[in-house]
Every structure is written in structure tokens, then in C-alpha cells.
Amino acid sequence: MDTDQLIRTLAADNAHRARPVGFALMLALLAAAPVSLLMFFTELGVRPDVMVAMHNPFFNLKFAVTLALAIAAIAVSLHLSRPEASLRGFGLLLLAPVGILAAAIGGEMMMPQRLPMMTRMVGKNSSTCLVAIPLMSLPLLAGALVGLRHGAPSRPAVAGAIAGLLSAGLAATLYASHCTDDSPLFVAAWYTIATALVTAIGALAGAKLLKY
Amino acid sequence: MRERDDEWTGLMRSAIAGDSAAYHRLLKAVTPVLRAAARRGLARAGQPVDQSEDIVQDILLAVHLKRHTWDVSAPFAPWLFAIARNKLIDALRRRGRRIFVDIDDFAETLPGETPAETASPGEVAAQLQTLPARQRDVLQAIAVDAASIKDTAAKFSMSEGAVRVALHRGLASLTAKLRER
């Protein structure tokens, strides 16, 4: 097939309209979410004292951090799905959850505490956290990658890493409602390690799957 | 250069709005620019320039299948050159060379510089043979025999909708095969 013939064929297919990447990403995440939710409710569940915990600002701040991460990562991944886009400027969005977390740590420092700092950071649930967040992320990461395949990122590994952040942020939001460690120090230590792991998996998978 | 970019952007807007003739004109207009850049990239990597047509076709397929990622309020050229650059780097890497491709390779192409197509391209044509029979027949009828969707539907006793689906699926799986090779 010579190039003129190919051009004629492409023009004949002009009527075909692909859905925007944001729509594809949303559908894929909605399809993946029930799997993660099922994992959460069968294995973990919401902590029993949730009604009391909701009066603790540090319990609520966990959601501010994880949701800020998820939302910022969704915005950045949609931006990066355009071939001419780069992380510059937009990448700053990803600092939002870091800023909230830093402010929360500062806030906690200024309040009187019953437990020493190290005890709060080490917490009681670190091993559950390190297993649960990555495992619940995996279906969401798969969904995010399927959705983002509709895009055309110029750096697939970076786009995959952002998909990892996105799915870790969503999975950590679920996990935060189970975990009884509410100290921002615990979040900064263990949630971060779990998120880094998912991000690395996302980068590796993205390098393969998000090439267009 | 500015005029050329504005013309391309206008054509692409019309294409997205459903004007297939504008789309055809646009693809025809960008091809010489892509070809010149592909040749320059190949020459600089010490590769035979007669492979440029494979790269051009690769770029055109990507442009077609990813055009929904173009923002209609943005200029078309930067988007096009980003895809072209990506595909050119891919092609050179596959040929075992790592090379830095400058975006200016695309932007700086002079209007008069319109090299003609050289060797008959192999890769798309070769992958075409591996498609399911129905997709291959439809693609060939439209590409080689220049048949319309309507004529193709009549020829294979398919509905026009089925021809459109086979056409699009054929193009998508061609691209997937090219990517996996």
C-alpha cells in the first residue's frame, strides 16, 4: 500500500470518532473499582469506631491527602495523554498532597501528644498498610492503564508512574477508613512507601502498555 | 511557516467537524514535511533513506488513531510534530540506533522541499496480509481500488456500517501489529 493509498483509507475512516481520554479513563476506573471495593470489604472493612474517628481532624486529614493525590494524578495523567504535553508546570499539582501532609505533620507537632513521635510513626498497622494499599491498587492501576491507552503520552513510563500514583491514591483512600493509625507521621512513612511501590509498578507497566 | 500552520489547524478543525475532504487535504499537505524529516533523521543515523516511507506511514496511522488527543483550540503543528518525533525516534531505535531527534527537524522544513516518495513501502503492506480476511478486503478495496464506503459495501454485500467498522478495526489492528513488531 503506498502512502497516497493509505491517506485515502484514513480519510475514508474520518467519520469514526474516538471517545476523549478522560471518558475512557473514567469508564475503566469505574469497571475496576468494584474489584478493589470487594477486596476492601471482604478483607478489611471500615474501622468500627468510625463515627468517633470522624471527630478527629487527623483521621479526616488522611482523606484530604489521599484524595488530593488521586485527583492531582488524574489531572496530570489526562494532561500527559496529549503527545505534545510535558510534566513541566502540571507536575506541581502533585505537590498538593505533599503540602497537605506537611501541614498536618506541623499541626500535630504543635499539639500535646500522649505517644512519642516514633511510636506514632511506627504505628500498629504498618505491615497491613504496606500489603493492602498495593493490592487494592492493582485492579485500579490496570483500569487506569486501559483507559490511558486511548491517549498518546510522549513518555509512557512517566505516564504509567502517574497512573500508579492515581491508583495508589484511590486505594489509600479506602485503606485510610480501615486504619486506626491517624498520625500524619504514619501516613508520611507507610502510605508513601506503599505508593512508591505502586508507582514503580505503574512505570514499568506503562513503559510497555502506554506506547502508541 | 505561520501561514502553513494556520492552514493545517483550519483543515484539522474542519476534519474533526466531519469534513473528510479537508482531512484528505491535510494528510496530503503534511506528508512531504514528514517525509523530509524522516529522511533527515535516517540520514543522520546512517540509515538508508529509502526506509522513510515506512516511518511516514507509521506517523500517519498514529495521527489518525490519536487525533482525539488534539485540542481543537490549540495549533495543529506542535501536536503533529510531537507524534512524528516520537515515531521517528521509535523507528531509529528499532534499527538499533539511539539518536536525538530535534523538533526543529520538522518545523524547519522549507516549503519548496518536497521529496517524492521513493521505495515502495513494505511494513504496512506486509502487515496488511496478516489481517482477518474481511478487514483486509475492505482496506484493500478502499486503498487500492479507491472504492467508496458505499461501493465497498455493495461489492462484499455488507452494510455500510459493517464496512466502516471493518475499516476502522483494520486500521487499528494494523497499527497494533506495527507497534509490536
TrEMBL record, chain A:
It comes from the Bacteria. InterPro entries: NrsF. The chain crosses the membrane at residues 21-41, 61-80, 92-111, 131-148, 157-176, 188-210. Pfam families: NrsF (PF06532). This is DUF1109 domain-containing protein. Keywords: Membrane, Transmembrane, Transmembrane helix.
UniProtKB/TrEMBL annotation, chain B:
It holds the Pfam family Sigma70_r4_2. It comes from the Bacteria. Residues 124-174 form the RNA polymerase sigma factor 70 region 4 type domain. Keywords: DNA-binding, Sigma factor, Transcription, Transcription regulation. GO terms for molecular function: DNA binding; sigma factor activity. Residues 32-98 form the RNA polymerase sigma-70 region domain. One of its GO terms (biological process) is DNA-templated transcription initiation. Belongs to the sigma-70 factor family. ECF subfamily. This is RNA polymerase subunit sigma. It comes from Bradyrhizobium lablabi.
